[in-house]
Amino acid sequence: MADNSETKETLAALRAYLEALQESGVEGLPFGEVNGADELAMVAEPHLSYAAAPVTAETLDGIRAEMEQCHRCPLATTRTNLVFGVGNPQARLVFVGEAPGHDEDLQGEPFVGEAGQLLTKIIQAMGLARQDVYICNVLKCRPLHNRNPLPAEIDTCIPYLFRQIEAIKPAVIVALGTFAAQTLLETKEPISRLRGRFHDYRGIQLMPTFHPAFLLRNSAMKKEVWADMQQVMKRLGLVAIQRKD
Questions:
Q1: pLDDT of 145-168, one tens digit each?
Q2: Does position 35 have pLDDT exceeding 80, yes or no?
Q3: DSSP string of 159-191, one letter each residue
Q4: To the nearest 5 percent, what fractions of the chain are helix, strand and coil?
Q5: What ranges do the domains of the chain cover?
């Protein structure tokens, strides 16, 4: 083991080396490339930080491939198809619903049933097409008999939704219904009180509104949803082609 004088000489030499690197424009060194002197470098020049290795951004395809193998909850054993999401992977607008239904489970695509047809009309009324936006759900597997998602199922599946949103990096999220809004905003406030104004989701503007399935049973509430979508359109700089009821 080197004595104190040898250690001081090593530190002095290392300090001079790091100062020369800094003057030449180098702001940090990667781990594993300091010839075994990592700890000495940190002591010699603590204001020089090691450069972190670049992080490769996740893709939707990569997340989906991982989910195809997911059996973290019992819903994986009863699903017909994984209902991951569909649309533009670089969409500025993302719609998030609750969970797949019967039609979605059969086709492996979100919002393709009667409620999905209404959502398509809303999207078209905003001057967009389904392929312009991204559509997904909190849960990726259908709960049997279309029951409400269980808290444990949401807790298990929600990290995948977080990763989807991070991969897409939209400007605006529309949370369709109670479960999507409450889950993303981490609140117990009812959708009737959440809708009508933007909320912050990790730096992204989020607009809660009623679920299309709710509108099928309560057609009088369509005007509230349209008012919410007009706010979204204004935020995105969109012009409506026509209103669809």
A1: 889 999 999 999 999 999 999 999
A2: no
A3: HHHHHHHHHH--SEEEEESHHHHHHHHT----H
A4: 50, 10, 40
A5: 7-44, 60-236
Both tokens assigned to 114: 């009667």
Q: Exposure of 83 by Cβ count < 10 A (0-12 exposed, 13-18 middle, 19+ buried)? A: buried
Q: Which overall architecture, per CATH, does domain 60-236 show?
A: 3-Layer(aba) Sandwich (3.40)
Q: Would you say residue 41 has pLDDT above 50?
A: no
Q: Residue 174's closest CA among 131, 215, 226, 237? A: 226
C-alpha to C-alpha distance for 67 and 70, rounded to whole angstroms: 5
Structure tokens, 75: 């819903």
Angle between helices 222-236 and 114-125 (to 10 degrees): 50
Region label for 129, one of left (φ > 0), alpha (ψ between -120 and 50) or beta (otherwise): beta
Give the tokens for residue 85.
Answer: 């999401």
For residue 88, the one-letter residue type is N
- Entry pTM: 0.77
